[in-house]
Amino acid sequence: MPGEPTLEGRIAVVTGAGSGLGAAMARVYAAAGMAVASLDIDGPAAETTAAGLAEEFGVPVTAVRTDVGDVESVEAAASHVAATFGGCDLLAANVGVQQFGAIDRLTEQDWAWVLNVNVMGTVRTVRAFLPLVRSRTGWRRIVVTASSGVLIPGVRLGAYQASKFAVMGYGETLRQELADEGIGVSILFPAGMMTRHLESSALARPAELGESVTLPDDIEAMLASRRMADGDVVTADYAVRNLLGDLLADEPYVLTHGSYRGEYNRRRDAIDAAFDRMERP
Q1: 20, 66, 139, 221: which could form a disulfide with 39 (CB 3.0–4.6 Å)?
Q2: pLDDT tens for residues 190-201?
Q3: Which residues are part of the catalytic machinery?
């Protein structure tokens, strides 16, 4: 479109780029001509993503094993990107882990793990890479990954959804605070995808926190509460098909897919009704 900035030669950093949504994001950015730093707790997976981008799109790449649950690991990744690429134009703070379980069954360790990775991992990522974003000029963006569960909460997802509510609040505040610097911030709300998210989450959980336990009926109960329709579970590549366009337009919210608008509207209407009751004389 006329007036849109060229992204060729700009630099994208993606956490969780080893698979799933993060890998799909990285492909979108590389296809636009951006250099890509692929970060993931699974180092070989991060390297595989980077190698594939270089082969397919011919863009500069680098890969770094990064554990967003550890501040030193995130800071080391930022130092590596600064030394390798010299800055960052687009930061995708995408890492998130999943833990199913009824509210009264989630353990202290479950909560600590999910909140540390999903909330503090996002905070650490932005804090470490923001100086690299500020060092650049012109078009600059940050995208943080929340979840459709923030818009239509379901059961057995208490810890995960609470963490993503926090990510949304953090992203909205970040957008306001960086607006005067010309740095756009968008919040991504992905829905169900065909990825290794549950498997990769379990593998990433620190051994000292114990095993990640999902009971057979947890997923069944969640699916029943969300009333998902045919086509609501898609590939990660399909989910990010409109992402870059929304980032170019500096849209505050990015939805990936799903047939849950009616359920969201019912929730919105209930909140509007609460305003109406509050405003009665």
Answers
A1: 66
A2: 999 887 666 777
A3: 160
